[in-house]
Amino acid sequence: MGHDGTLQFGHYRDKDKVEVDVVISRGAEVWGVEVKASTAVDRGDIQGLLRLADKAGDGFQTGIVLYAGDAVLPLDGPRIQAVPMRKLWEL
Fold first, then answer.
1. pLDDT tens, 31-68?
2. Residue 2 and residue 27 in contact, taking contact as beta carbons nearer than 8 Å
3. How many CA atoms lie within 13 A of 68 on its CB side?
4. Is 54 exposed, middle or buried (0-12, 13-18, 19+ CB in 10 A)?
């Protein structure tokens, strides 16, 4: 993890093959991003983010599931949300 304020990008996969597509870290702060092609998401889609949050402890900032749906949805309270991919390009 970066110690100078620099963002570091990686991938998380544990021995159980639970994974997160993109992990962004800065010092002890950690963010996770999952990308799904589907138009619907559920708690099953955040297992990797939940595992990452557990591993990162207090350093976990938030998790996002980018998906092909239309609505921003809370999946684990405010800390993990599903966000439509199109939001990346909206101003």
1. 999 999 999 999 899 999 999 999 999 999 999 999 99
2. yes
3. 4
4. exposed
